[in-house]
Amino acid sequence: MSPETVESIKEALTPLMEKLGQGGEAAWAMAVRQQYVVAGQAVVLWILLLVVGVVWWRRIEPPMQKWVDAGSSYSDRDVAQTFARIAFAIAFFFLGVASVISTVQGVSRLINPEWYALQSLLNLVTGQ
Predict the structure, then answer these.
(1) What whole-number distance in Å separates Cα of residue 104 and Cα of residue 42?
(2) Distance (Å, rounded) from C-alpha 8 to C-alpha 84?
(3) Burial (CB count within 10 angstroms: exposed 0-12, middle 13-18, buried 19+), residue 66
(4) How many CB atoms are located within 10 Å of the residue 83 CB?
(5) Nearest-CA neighbor of 104 among 38, 29, 31?
(6) pLDDT one-digit tens code per residue, 76-120
(7) Per residue in 30-52, pLDDT tens?
(8) pTM for this entry
(9) How far does Cα 39 stand from its chain's mean position?
(10) What SS3 string covers 60-100?
(11) Residue 13 to residue 8: CA distance in whole angstroms
(12) What pLDDT is stored for residue 60 in this prediction?
């Protein structure tokens, strides 16, 4: 963000901050801290989805094997395993896309928390 933009934002928010006084300073500090919390949640979500994916992938074979071996032919086993792998791939793809989007937003909040704090305060003031 250019220095001119920062100065224009400060000029626009100065009357509001003067009215709020110390409460405005506290709100600003809380808004910045909240951005770190949101970024941390994004990273935790990514790690959680990765762990769930690995556990699911490693556990999909034995239950499918037992279920299919309980009286199915060889071709049924192949179909069941293929179906399970396709279902896993589709679910993990969508979870992966959501995780990547969340991680990108989280990293950007870690890099520039003041910008996102400013956005959240402006949204609060304007009612959006």
Answers:
(1) 8
(2) 56
(3) exposed
(4) 11
(5) 38
(6) 666 777 777 788 788 888 877 887 887 788 888 888 888 888 787
(7) 888 888 888 888 888 888 888 88
(8) 0.57
(9) 8
(10) CHHHHHHHHHCCCCHHHHHHHHHHHHHHHHHHHHHHHHHHH
(11) 9
(12) 67
